[in-house]
Amino acid sequence: MKKHSLSDSFNNAFAGIVHALKTQRNMKIHFFIAVFVLFAAIFFDISKLELILIVFAIILVIAMELINTAIEIIIDMISSEYRIRAKIVKNISAGAVLMAAINAIIVGYLVFLDQIKTVSLLVFGQIAEDPIHFIFVNIFLLIIIVIYLKTKGGKGTPLEGGMPSGHSALAFLLATTVVVFSRDFLVSTLAVFLAVLVAHSRVQSKTHNLLEVIAGAVIGILFGLFILFFF
User: Fold this and answer.
1) Would you say residue 158 has pLDDT above 80?
2) How far apart are CA 89 and CA 68, in angstroms?
3) How many whole angstroms separate alpha carbon 225 and alpha carbon 176?
4) Three-class DSSP category at 184
5) 110 and 51, same domain (yes or no)
6) Has residue 106 been placed in a domain?
7) For 170-206, what is each residue's pLDDT tens digit?
8) On the CB side of 93, how many CA atoms lie within 13 Å of its CA?
9) Are 171 and 113 in the same domain?
10) Residue 33 structural domain
11) What number of H helices and E strands is found in the chain?
12) What angle do helix axes 84-129 and 131-153 make, rounded to 10 degrees?
């Protein structure tokens, strides 16, 4: 049997990590979160002990995911048929990964809690002083989410048809925003009336059905109430 050198052992280990990263969706998620957390650690300038805890939690999650992947591959090699014991083994190994991930979340929460509080106070304070920027961001987020939902539905185009109605969502978002900030009964009534007209026109033109319009209206109102949550 051929003996492997130390460099061969390292190459094989890295090859296993690369294979898991290429083939396992959860491993990709773990690596993405790890990179994000490490950048956050640099940005917030945490202490050496906190950095040690963060790195240990990241390595633990990735190591457990590698072990879980190896166990799944071995079980699939041994038995191609469904067996309850094989399922139990897979569930247990997946549970080990879950526990490591929960540990990482707790460590990250405890390490970054004070920094997140400070940044949140600064951001929300700026929003309260100048809400117009937050409103535009909210509109932009609504458009992105509506387009995403349309692509998942597989019906219509991003700008016409499909679930939900983007025009209705935007109209009711603007109407809700007007109601929140104007606090004027007449202006608020006109804004809601215009939103209803927009929704009705989408049904009248047969671009959307009633359910799609209602779904868009609900999404728009929820985004508008999201503004109200901050003010």
Assistant:
1) no
2) 10
3) 7
4) coil
5) yes
6) yes
7) 888 888 888 777 767 778 888 888 888 888 888 888 7
8) 20
9) no
10) 6-119
11) 8, 0
12) 150
Highest mean pLDDT out of 124-133, 150-159, 201-210:
201-210
- Alpha helix (H) ranges present in 130-165? 131-153
**Angle ∠(147,148,149) on CA atoms, nearest 5:** 90
212 classed as catalytic: no
Which pair of tokens denotes residue 177? 């925003």
**Domains held by the chain: number:** 2
Please tell me whether residues 107 and 161 are part of one structural domain.
no
Q: CA-CA distance, 36 to 58, in Å (whole number)?
A: 11
Give kind and range of the element (H or E) at residue 54. Answer: helix 48-78
Of 93, 119, 145, the domain-final residue: 119
The mean pLDDT value for 155-162 works out to 64
Are 58 and 19 contacting, i.e. CB atoms less than 8 angstroms apart? no
Length of the chain measured in residues: 231
Amino acid identity at 110: L
CA angle 75, 70, 109 (to 5 degrees): 125
Contacts 24+ apart (CB under 8 A), 194-202: 195/168, 195/171, 195/220, 198/167, 198/168, 198/171, 199/165, 199/167, 199/168, 199/171, 199/172, 201/167, 202/165, 202/167, 202/168
Inside any domain, residue 91? yes
Q: Decide if 217 is inside a domain.
A: yes
Query: Among the options 50, 65, 72, 81, which is catalytic?
Result: 65
Q: Are residues 10 and 115 in the same domain?
A: yes
Around Cβ 81, how many Cβ atoms within 10 Å?
5
With tokens 């130390």, the residue in question is: 6
Task: For residue 78, give every residue at least 6 positions away whose Cβ sits within 8 Å of its Cβ, in sequence order, or none.
Answer: 86
Q: pTM for the complete prediction?
A: 0.53
206: region left, alpha or beta (phi > 0 left; psi from -120 to 50 alpha): left
